[in-house]
């Protein structure tokens, strides 16, 4: 619905991810950047922007952290929908939940080594009785040409 907050990375404005352009390791780019795949966003648009791991380090991982969200309840379920690209050799994308009272991040979803280099979509549902943050964590183990993890169109439901 229209009440979902959407981060499509076309601009630097995103309520749920206020400083995504300051997260080291992630870079906001499009398919024409000359940095290898993906060569378009998840809609096939070569000039539209998405986030991908910067490929300058030998092995890289990077975290992307949301705002603090309020506790969920039956009426306010937090659903996060996102498009992702994980390269087939060594890419991993994890989504973690960090509750207010805990130091540790609980892994709630993970994908690695997708068979085909293509955009996929996933929706995760979060239940938390306390305030929490959500962390997207991307990693590539090798820096072979074209190895990357990318994220596009992260959408947060009203309950987030």
UniProtKB/TrEMBL annotation:
Q: Which InterPro entries match?
A: ConA-like_dom_sf, MAM_dom, MAM_domain-containing
Q: Where is the MAM domain?
A: 5-160
User: A single Pfam family, by name?
Assistant: MAM
Put simply, this protein is called MALR1 protein
Task: State the organism of origin.
Answer: Edolisoma coerulescens
SUPFAM superfamilies xref list? Concanavalin A-like lectins/glucanases
> Can you supply one Gene Ontology CC term for this chain's record?
membrane
């Amino acid at each position: 619905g229209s009440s979902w907050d959407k981060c499509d990375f076309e601009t630097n404005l995103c309520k749920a991810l206020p400083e995504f352009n300051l997260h080291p390791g992630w870079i906001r780019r499009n398919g024409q950047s000359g940095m290898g795949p993906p060569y378009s966003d998840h809609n096939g648009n070569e000039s539209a922007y998405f986030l991908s791991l910067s490929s300058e380090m030998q092995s890289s991982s990077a975290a992307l952290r949301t705002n603090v969200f309020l506790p969920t309840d039956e009426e306010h379920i937090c659903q996060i929908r996102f498009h992702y690209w994980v390269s087939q050799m060594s890419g991993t994308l994890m989504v973690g939940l960090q509750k207010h009272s805990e130091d540790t991040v609980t892994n709630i979803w993970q994908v690695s080594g997708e068979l085909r280099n293509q955009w996929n979509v996933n929706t995760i549902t979060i239940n938390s009785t306390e305030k929490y943050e959500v962390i997207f964590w991307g990693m590539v183990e090798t820096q072979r040409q074209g190895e990357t993890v990318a994220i596009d169109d992260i959408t947060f439901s009203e309950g987030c």
